[in-house]
Design goal:
CATH class: Mainly Beta
Radius of gyration: 18 Å
Strand content: 25-35%
Structural class: alpha/beta
Number of domains: 1
CATH topology: UDP N-Acetylglucosamine Acyltransferase, domain 1
Strand order of the largest sheet: 2-5-8-11-14-17-19-20
CATH superfamily: Hexapeptide repeat proteins
Helix content: 10-25%
Length: about 200
């Protein structure tokens, strides 16, 4: 019975991909072609990388590592700008980053595999100013696997987001988020535990 259901699922997936419109196929081809151009700015990039229009990559004393089947939608900005130390942005396999989202790394922003980051999100490990110090305060940001970040959320420096967590739209994350929890608000707090989501 299970084997039959698996076969039906595989057939449905194959049939759905076969039935994609010519417009959808052409749009994917354009994103792949644009990805070939953008990937030249990365230190490492896996296959099937897709990029939307207007993706911006800024790099100084830095490396950007992108996994396989990653998609950066229209207007995404990646800024790996190392001043006092070298900086890195790492994005795992099968992760999608939504329109106009910005990722700023002064030291490290690491995003896992299978993540879905919505539009207008800002993720940064730095303040871009010095406060009561001669040094800019920079603390790495680590986002686990299969994390969903809702639109217009802000992930601030020094935070770790556990595997399978969900960040509600408009949240400001200032401290660690445990795995498989839903957080929301300003500052973000736990709203529900033991959650899961399906892309």
């Amino acid at each position: 019975m299970d084997a039959g259901l698996d076969t039906q699922k595989e057939y449905k997936i194959d049939r759905d991909s076969f039935n994609r419109s010519l417009f959808e196929i052409a749009a994917e081809a354009v994103k792949l072609a644009r990805g070939v151009w953008v990937r030249r700015k990365f230190s490492k990039c896996g296959p099937l990388f897709r990029a939307g229009r207007g993706v911006v990559v800024l790099k100084k004393n830095a490396s950007i590592e992108i996994g396989r089947k990653v998609q950066l939608h229209k207007g995404v900005k990646l800024s790996a700008w190392g001043n006092e130390c070298s900086s890195r942005i790492v994005i795992g396999d099968n992760t999608a980053v939504g329109d106009r989202t910005e990722i700023h790394a002064g030291r490290l922003v690491e995003i896992g595999s299978g993540c879905n980051i919505a539009w207008d999100v800002c993720i940064l490990d730095r303040d871009y100013h010095k406060f009561n110090s001669h040094m800019e305060e920079i603390e790495p940001v680590k986002i686990g696997n299969n994390v969903w970040i809702g639109c217009r959320s802000i992930i601030l420096k020094g935070t770790t987001i556990g595997d399978g967590a969900v960040i509600a739209a408009g949240s400001i994350v200032t401290k660690d988020v445990p795995p498989k929890t839903l957080v929301g608000g300003n500052p973000a707090r736990i709203l529900k535990e033991d959650v899961y989501w399906i892309p």
